[in-house]
Amino acid sequence: MKDNIRSKFNMYRIARSLSSVVRAVIIIGICYVILHPLIVKICASFMSESDLYDASVKYISKAPNLTNYKMAIEGMEYWKMLIKTGVFSATISLLQLFSCLLTAYGFARFRFPFKKLLFGCVILTLIVPPQIIMLPLFMKYRFFDIFGIFHAIKGNSINLIDSLVPFYIQSATCMGIRNGLYIYLLRQFFKGMPRELEEAAFVDGSGKLRTFFTIMLPSAIPMMVTVFLFGFVWQWTDSFYSGLFLTKNHVMASVLSNLSANIYSSYEGFGGSMNFISPGFVSMMNNTGTVLMILPLIILYLICQKSFVEGIERSGIVG
Amino acid sequence: MNYFKRRNGKLRLSLTGKEAVWGILFILPFLIGFFGIFLPMIVDSIRFSFSNMDVESTGYVLHKAANNGWEHYLRALTIDPDFNMLLVNSVLSMLVRVPLIIIFSFFAATLLNQKFKGRAVARSVFFLPVILTSGVVFGLENSDLLVRTLSDVNMDSSELENFLNVSRFLMEYTNLPKPIISYLTTAVNGIYDIVVASGVQILIFLAGLQSISPSLYEASSMEGATGWENFWKITFPMISPMILVNSVYTIIDMFTNEANEMMNEIKTTIFSEVKYGFGSAMAWIYFVCIAVILLIAGWLISRKVFYYDER
Fold this sequence. Notes:
A: mainly alpha; 74% helix; flat; B: mainly alpha; MetI-like fold; two-stranded antiparallel sheet
């Protein structure tokens, strides 16, 4: 009897350790698939052009060097761009976070007419592809006017293209990149909070705004970090809106997409003087530029990682 | 509902009325954005698609297009050689990808929800694609042929061999029909694209899994249910709302991401070729397709969705 139980117990243990081995293999495999392109990029950024065409070179360059980084940093004006884009993305992201927080709280806690219809509108802004409103968007800010006020004063409308104002307007009114998603996530989070907290605050004589700022916001910090991070990252890498509103190179994304073309003239490369841009050079510059661009994001992600994961978990999205 | 009440003969806001006013004040940023910016732009876009536009220094002038304004739509659907093909292609690739992404992200979320050593590290790696594959980074990666051939996640000769081996294995040892086999092998082959596209979906599924109360599992295990039964009778129904959310999100994401060919086509038509009306018409046809597919998918899935507490 005792032996029987023991053997059963052993079987159970074996089965458990086997399943954890299988799990480990699968997880490591998927991690490899995710990390591999990143590793390839980092490796390629240390290569010279001849390494790229050399079949015997796979990951480690024959003569690892930092020339690519020097060129890319110079060509992108990296440090200047880093600060500029960083400040820009952070401002935009904070603005979006603030307006989305207000809207989400309104949808989560108050009853008002046409609430369902209006929330449907939030989802609609998420579904409509930005390409549809691309042209009107451009036209709107090219010939910007509020109820004809500027037209009355100055005689014609203002041109806001090539300034950062369109970005600020868009994000202050919840129309930034995927803001519908943020409103949705935050609303789910606020819905999951116990009502008793607010009721207690209300009984103690706190107004709606004060309840929102002193009771709700502090407990929503992990979720806020998540939304901030999303907003920051998507603004940082966005080339759609920056390509639309800015014709000059104001932000990192637009600099990166033109990098190889911009600095090719100063490049004495593998093929001597060619009159087309060699694919190897484009590839090298793109990889180095991409590594330089996502490096700050990865550092930021590692710092925020804990609240990011926690925030997502606590959103407890239900339908 | 009564938003007003009479006191001393004067009309005042009732308690529900006050609540409604506060609610509207809170969502004011969105209201301004939606009715001040978004809706007018949608209307403008429809008007553009029905007309020809001349841009002048002070503004733009619209002329009605031919065929009662339907000129651009007719041209996109009947004359333009690429448009229909691109449309069909993007719909087809969406249909192939979406189930795979949903299944994979659900699987990954279940894995990440278990307790094991190094879970925190695994989680941060799994969510990395959310950061790495957005915007310009994704676009550059897709255009970079040299590195795509360098990285052996994508198809080179050894990969092709694997591909054939997998299909041969499936054909010899299982009796699956051929279309399913080819579907599975493309799935295995395109694993990178699937993994990379499912970052947000994993997050959403994980949040859902965490919100299932452990007492449900306890009770059913008491009654002698196995893990398999637990999965199909508890986890699956409880997670089904998330499947709906994720399917909708994935479909939208597939259609609107910056690597989508249709999106690029529309962008070049409008900005490089300066055909405003034609580009807008293309965008609208595309949007109608997305909307129809979303409606069908939403309807199909929501019939199976189970809500734990109806609210």
